[in-house]
Amino acid sequence: MAEFRYQGIGISGRIVQGMVSARNKRDALKRAEEIAKTRRFKLKDLAKKATFVYKVRKGREAAITGQQKAFSADEVRRALEKMGYNVQSIQKRLFDYKMKPPSKEIVMFIRLSADLLREKLPYDEILNLLSNDMDNKALQQTLKEINQDLKDGKDGVEVYGKQADALGKFPAHMLGVASKSGNMVEIYESTAKFLERNEEFKKNLKSALIMPIVVVLALLGAVLFYVAYIFPQTANMFLKFDIDLPPMTAGTLELSRWLQSNAWIILTIIGGLSVFLARFFKSNRGKYLTSKYLIKVPVIGTLMHKTSIEIWCRVFYSLYSGSGENIEAIRIASEACRSPYMERQIKEIAIPLMLKEGQGLIEALEKTGVFTRNALSRLHSGAETGTIRETALQVANYYEKETTHKLRNIIDLIQVIIAMLIMVVMTAITIISSETAVIKPKMPGVQ
């Protein structure tokens, strides 16, 4: 998220200023107006922190260039002149877009941080070490900003919250909580484990779905090219000699003519439908409805459902303290589980039941209808023995092993189905093509 500085004039005429973090200027203006209303001052200005590129020289030394984030060029100029530099130029970067670091780099940063924290290395030294050692420039800059903000005494949750776009919403929240807790090693370890598991699952899911989809689309394209272009060349040659075509050849030729005459209509429908579905699945309602009905889909749906439960249990284990703060742990775990339907059920059913009606955790989770009987049974046993936190980790580990094993079986099954589909299509093409071999031309003078 970007930083914005607001300035205003209070009732006594004093200048009031402060900073807010927001995704865009509209959200920042809304937050600044709320602050102005609460603190009773008139908002005058709102400036976004930007990156300025400068060129300076000190004495007879060679000119050097660099960049600095600030709210105005004057701030950068004053800071450089205070350091004894002669400023030659300062320009605001035209395209100040911050690239998101690759997820693998983020996982590596958190894993290395957990390992170094376990070795009792101070956290500021860890950030210095990793920010200088990381190859990715975006992550390197992110770590430097985090280190500088922490040195300035800013709140850890706020510091990492600003980097939610770069690190991801869930990792940023977890690392912010870790910075204020007394068990940084455990939270970093759990976060690294979660992200590693998440990366592994996405990699396996892509292996299970993307390649088969590519193969099917390539096969479909080859069949359409054969039916719409190659086959008519042969079939029309027989028609020129007034030769009767066999049934499959005649039917394929009719299909080819229909495809050629309605090609633009078909492409328009497919294009429009693709755009509609892409926008629908990216919308909040589309994600919610997809996750709601995906649970009922055999095999893949069950796999995704159990993976969401695994993630919820793993995050819950990381944050649960056994005190009143467990409501926050339940909420954060629901946001991390990757299922909008499961998240809404927990937030709108389980949490209100616990807060307003005083129901226990397991009873409230059972009312949501998104947890399996096995998971509820294990959590119930843990709640009765006072080991619900450890039981949540056991459930997560169990579902991790089960889903990993089932996903491998699904990959093998899909590969078999694709092989059979290719065999059927190629057989059909071969039969249709070979049918032309039995076509007999009419003898001269024979009606």
- Provide the low-confidence segments as ranges: none
Task: Please tally the β strands and state the result.
Answer: 6
Shape: extended
In N-to-C order, the SSE pattern is EEHEEEHEHHHHHHHHHHHHHHHH
- Work out the strand percent: 5-15%
Spatial arrangement of strands, main beta sheet: 2-1-3
Radius of gyration: 31 Å
- How many individual helices? 18
Sequence-ordered SSE layout with sheet pairings:
Elements lengths: L1 E9 L4 E8 L2 H15 L1 E8 L1 E8 L6 E7 L2 H10 L3 E7 L10 H16 L4 H11 L3 H15 L4 H7 L1 H4 L1 H12 L3 H57 L6 H15 L1 H20 L1 H11 L5 H20 L6 H11 L3 H17 L4 H8 L4 H13 L2 H48 L12
Antiparallel strand pairs: 1-2, 1-3, 4-5, 4-6
What features would you describe in this structure?
- With 447 residues, the chain is mostly helical.
- The protein is built from 18 helices and six strands.
- The strands form two sheets. Strands 2-1-3 form a three-stranded antiparallel beta sheet, with helices on one face. A three-stranded antiparallel beta sheet has the order 5-4-6, with helices on one face.
- The chain starts with a strand and ends in a 12-residue tail after the last helix.
- The model has no long low-confidence stretch (mean pLDDT 82).
